[in-house]
Amino acid sequence: MGKLFKKVIGEHFQFYLISNNFIHPCQLESLKQRSTSDASVTLTHFICAGWVKNNITSTLAFDIAQFFPLLNHYLLPIILRKVGCDSKVNHFFSNYLVGRKTWYCWNNITSSLFNVDIGVGQSLALFPILFALYIAPIFHILENCLKNLKIPVSILFFVNNSLLIAQSKSLIISNSFLFCSYNIVSSLLEKFSLILGHGKMEVFHFSRSHGTFNPPLLDLSALGGPSLRPRDTWRYLGFIFNRKLLFYQHIDFYANKAISTIKYMKILGNSTCGLITHQKQLLYRSCILPIAFYCF
After folding, report:
1. Do 136 and 51 reside in the same domain of the chain?
2. In this structure, are residues 268 and 274 in contact, taking their beta carbons and an 8 Å threshold?
3. Do 252 and 204 fall within a single domain?
4. How far apart are CA 29 and CA 6, in angstroms?
5. What span, in angstroms and rounded, lies between the C-alpha atoms of 172 and 216?
6. What was the pLDDT predicted at 123?
7. Residue 59 and residue 151 in one domain
8. Once rounded to an integer, what is the mean pLDDT over residues 165-188?
9. Among 30, 39, 134, 183, which is 20 to 30 Å from 113 by CA?
């Protein structure tokens, strides 16, 4: 009953937040029935729209490190009060996950209980809404800051994978936009007790220009970040992009993966016979086609 109650509470609360626009539009995640393909299609639309205006699209991808263990339970009720939630909802979340204890067990050895009042498990019933609600104010503040500073940078967010998108006719100008946006993002995350994962940061430029394409280095060392050099291809949420959106590498990768999976199907079965025709058809439609078409 406890899990069912939390699920019902989560569904009603999600509807309340979405209907009142508390979730930022850039948050493309499961909360609004989105998928990784939606996020990649949205990015492709950004790029093509920029090419119509003869702009080069530059992206800075970054990851929020250790987000789930760092979620602050005392900051969450403050956010709930700011968005105007009912006092009963606020009281429920003020007590949810507070006072948790756990222990580790290895064979016959059991540790003593210790508190785990910080963080949230990814498998919990209310994890999607807690995550989206906690991170949403950052994007609202970031959007206002970029608008006030007249920095034309768009935001795309999928779970804890974030993307800053700048468009300009000059790569140097785009890099300056990304540099300023990164500075604002890092300071905002620090105020929310979150940190950037510098090891997963990547920069990539999309251009239809012919001939030699040698984009400049994006140096974030002055802000405590790394120096980033764009690669020839970039993998984002399972999609493999190149700078001209040709998707040759993406098609080759998933076609080869699908073919190798088909070959491994031969080893399935028992000691006397292999799979029957119906089982092969079911495996092909449920396992091979989603790989070949990336769930489309």
Report:
1. yes
2. yes
3. no
4. 20
5. 7
6. 59
7. yes
8. 88
9. 134
Q: Considering its fold, how many domains does the chain have in total?
A: 2
Instruction: Give the domain extent around 288.
Output: 247-296
What is the per-residue DSSP string for 9-25?
HHHHHHHHHHHTT-S-T
Q: pLDDT at position 40, please? A: 82
Are 171 and 85 in a shared domain?
yes
233 lies in the same domain as 291: no
Q: Could you say which of 230, 245, 260 is where a domain stops?
A: 245
In this predicted structure, the answer to whether residue 248 has a pLDDT above a threshold of 80 is: yes
31 contact partners, CB below 8 Å, separation of at least 6: 14, 18, 23, 128, 129, 132
pLDDT, tens only, 64-103: 776 666 677 777 777 777 777 777 777 777 777 677 777 8
Contact 187, 173 (CB under 8 A): no
- Say if strands 114-115 and 218-219 run parallel, antiparallel, or are unpaired: unpaired
pLDDT tens track for 183-200: 888 888 888 777 777 778
Residues 6+ apart with CB under 8 A from 125: 3, 6, 7, 10
Q: How many Å apart are CA 44 and CA 55, to the nearest integer?
A: 14
Q: How far apart are CA 258 and CA 261, in angstroms?
A: 5
Residues 84 and 213 in one domain: yes
Q: Do residues 65 and 119 lie in contact, with contact meaning Cβ atoms separated by under 8 Å?
A: no
